[in-house]
Amino acid sequence: MPSLTDAFNQQLSDLRILIVEDDPLMRLGLEHLLEDYHQLQIIGQMEDGYSGVEAALELKPDLVIMDIGLPELDGIAATQQIKASLPMVRVMMLTSHKSEQEIIAALSSGADGYCVKGLGLEKLVMAIACVQDGSIYLDPQIAQCVVKHLQPAARVKPANPLSRRELEVLELIVEGHSNPEIALMLHLSLSTVKAHIRSIMNKLAVDDRVQAAVVALRSGWI
Description:
Largest sheet: 6 strands, parallel
Number of helices: 11
Order of helices and strands: HEHEHEHEHEHEHHHHH
């Protein structure tokens, strides 16, 4: 069976990355960690929110790795401005902030992923691959916080339209796993996992993984 790193390498394609982070050691560390992945090209590093927005508008990266606690303009507001002008640019939060208010605000601003600082290289690259693939990535440390925020008590459990395998995939999505991880854990190909996720979203009439997870949890299926 292929390793998780092999799965990342197969999924990653050339990606132009802008880093917006006020800690110079963190910027240096990110550059050092990602330099072995030749598909990942760091095209700029900015230390405050305003500069991050300006650089994104000028450079038009594929992905912005964004901190929240930035000087001048915080990462949540910066993400909102970037998304308003460049909706196709993916933004992944990489931050030490874990309060429910900041997590929900970041996702509401248009962030495509939320990672907590201190995660390992494989997890970081997994998150990048997930976001690049058009999915939402939530760090397992904060995934349940999001679900709890969006999950009211359900009095009547609605009928479940999903197959057993689709429920297995959806449960792993709720736990914060990416497509490559789900493929390895369920012994499926990446294309099969993507097909299951498309089917889940069609059946639940939702647009992304987070919405699908919320519907399942609200309905009491997981």
